[in-house]
TrEMBL record:
<keyword id="KW-0175">Coiled coil</keyword>
<dbReference type="InterPro" id="IPR015505">
    <property type="entry name" value="Coronin"/>
</dbReference>
<dbReference type="InterPro" id="IPR001680">
    <property type="entry name" value="WD40_rpt"/>
</dbReference>
<protein>
    <recommendedName>
        <fullName>Coronin</fullName>
    </recommendedName>
</protein>
<dbReference type="InterPro" id="IPR036322">
    <property type="entry name" value="WD40_repeat_dom_sf"/>
</dbReference>
<feature type="domain" description="DUF1899">
    <location>
        <begin position="5"/>
        <end position="69"/>
    </location>
</feature>
<dbReference type="InterPro" id="IPR019775">
    <property type="entry name" value="WD40_repeat_CS"/>
</dbReference>
<dbReference type="Pfam" id="PF00400">
    <property type="entry name" value="WD40"/>
</dbReference>
<feature type="repeat" description="WD">
    <location>
        <begin position="171"/>
        <end position="212"/>
    </location>
</feature>
<keyword id="KW-0853">WD repeat</keyword>
<feature type="repeat" description="WD">
    <location>
        <begin position="78"/>
        <end position="120"/>
    </location>
</feature>
<dbReference type="InterPro" id="IPR015048">
    <property type="entry name" value="DUF1899"/>
</dbReference>
<dbReference type="Pfam" id="PF08953">
    <property type="entry name" value="DUF1899"/>
</dbReference>
<dbReference type="Pfam" id="PF16300">
    <property type="entry name" value="WD40_4"/>
</dbReference>
<keyword id="KW-0009">Actin-binding</keyword>
<dbReference type="GO" id="GO:0051015">
    <property type="term" value="F:actin filament binding"/>
</dbReference>
<dbReference type="InterPro" id="IPR015943">
    <property type="entry name" value="WD40/YVTN_repeat-like_dom_sf"/>
</dbReference>
């Protein structure tokens, strides 16, 4: 009997990536040069937000999606932070509400006017202070409105109830900087990766660590929950410094189900998972390509499909929510690629080739919509509920009627679990001490230069006075 290769039937076998034409890109954008490992981009069905390079504080652009082409240099910005903006995320239930976090230790909530910005926005509707160091990550709860998580360089994750404008819970189980956070489908579990080389699955309301993996052979950087499959996928680096992905059972992190090496490049691998199509996308920071796979419930679990190639390296990628996709073109995923060298944001559509122009129900199942399933009080009391689903055939043009109302508050101390977060500062890391040392050295050099300039000026003035005194007087 002759050997035959195993054939695996898949409707996504021929998915291909299609980059938008130049007139449908966003050009002339001063994309930030910050080296923080984030996307610096967020997108929803109405707006595109990009963190920009700025002096004297942090700022980001908010551009309506239909306003493609070249963006003017004086285009209005959101510029209320006093430090570099490190992360931005749109509210999944209110299209014009965006959260940002910064090196100035604050998290801010902004309300974008209808039609976009007409002038610079400096006043946030809500300013959240609870971290004692810079804040690197913000994450919205997937099923509950007005619940926001933030992770700072003080090793803490704070859960904010935006209806009261205060942190209501604190997760304090990390011993180093948190690199990534990911919720499961109903928001009952939170997975985190940390610089201490540990992968954790945490119950967010109690802060209790349910599972923990010490990743010595696979140094984890990023993690994502694979929908409701009770599995996690991480990207990281192997002991031979090759880029690697690993699949885990969320109820047993003692050993990964599979580990697979990708390549020997050095850029961070960003994972993106589409629970509707069970497709995984891998995009490397500084790469020009995007690999995509199909996740299966049985071995080998991971099946390689294809790769989108581009010569332009990407700094980060924004992802369009499902209800913003073009279903008439059989588009199942859309990236917004940041190309720093060109100051360009390039949309990339992942398309299933179909001859029919009618709605394809097999590739567009019911998907999480724009209505929250829980209130903050319900979720904080322990209730879990699956997201409210919507059909893209009828509901993708429906606008949410939820309105954000900022609370009125005045409070200088932030106390959670009996601890004042602004007073309880962890010891500084070695990198932070080195940065502080170099800043102090630069300041000393600057002051010496100023003193030498003043000495030169004093000598010049003394010489002028001496020459003036030596001028003979006329009789």
């Amino acid at each position: 009997m002759s050997w035959r290769p195993q054939y695996r039937s898949s409707k996504f076998r021929n998915v291909y990536g299609k980059a938008a034409s130049r007139e449908h890109c966003f050009d002339g954008i001063p994309i930030t040069k910050n080296v923080h490992d984030n996307h610096f981009c967020a997108v929803n069905a109405r707006f595109l937000a990009i963190v920009t390079e700025s002096a004297g504080g942090g700022s980001f652009l908010v551009i309506p999606l239909q306003q493609t082409g070249r963006i003017e240099p004086n285009y209005p910005k959101v510029c209320g932070h006093q430090g570099n903006v490190l992360d931005i995320k749109w509210n999944p239930f209110i299209d014009n509400i965006i959260a940002s976090c910064s090196e100035d230790t604050s998290v801010r909530i902004w309300e974008i006017p209808e039609g976009g910005l007409k002038r610079n926005m400096t006043e946030a509707v809500l300013e959240l202070y609870g971290h004692s160091r810079r804040v690197g990550i913000v994450e919205w709860h997937p099923t509950t409105n007005n619940i926001l998580l933030s992770a700072g360089y003080d090793y803490k994750v704070l859960i904010w109830n935006l209806e009261v404008g205060e942190p209501v819970k604190m997760i304090d189980c990390h011993t180093d900087v948190i690199l990534c956070m990911s919720f499961n489908a109903d928001g009952s579990l939170l997975a985190t990766t940390c610089k201490d080389k540990r992968l954790r699955v945490v119950e967010p309301r109690s802060g209790r660590v349910l599972q923990e993996a010490s990743c010595k052979n696979h140094r984890v950087n990023r993690v994502v929950f694979l929908g409701s499959t009770k599995r996690l996928l991480t990207t990281g680096v192997s002991r031979w410094n090759t880029r690697q992905i690993a699949l885990w059972d969320q109820e047993d992190l003692s050993m990964p189900l599979i580990e697979e090496e990708i390549d020997g490049l050095s850029g961070l691998l960003f994972p993106f998972y589409d629970a509707d199509t069970h497709m995984l996308y891998l995009a490397g920071k500084g790469d020009g390509n995007i690999r995509y796979y199909e996740i299966c419930s049985e071995k080998p679990y991971l099946s390689y499909l294809m790769e989108f190639r581009s010569p332009a390296p990407q700094k980060g990628l924004g992802v369009m929510p499902k209800h913003g996709l073009d279903v008439s073109a059989c588009e199942v995923f859309r990236f917004y690629k940041l190309i720093t060298l060109k100051g360009l944001i390039e949309p990339i559509s992942m398309i299933v080739p179909r001859r029919s122009e009618t709605y394809q129900e097999d590739i567009y199942p019911m998907t999480p919509g724009t209505e929250p399933a829980l209130t903050p009080d319900e979720w904080l009391s322990g209730v879990n509920r699956d997201p409210i689903l919507m059909s893209l055939k009828e509901g993708y043009k429906r606008n949410s009627k939820i309105v954000f109302k900022a609370p009125v508050r005045e409070k200088k101390s932030v106390v959670v679990n009996g601890i004042d977060l602004l007073e309880n500062v962890p010891p500084r890391t070695e990198n932070e001490l080195l940065r502080m040392f170099f800043r102090q050295q630069d300041e000393i050099r600057r002051l010496k230069d100023e003193l030498s300039q003043k000495d030169i000026r004093i000598r010049q003035l003394q010489l002028e006075i001496k020459n003036f005194r030596n001028i003979p007087k006329n009789n």
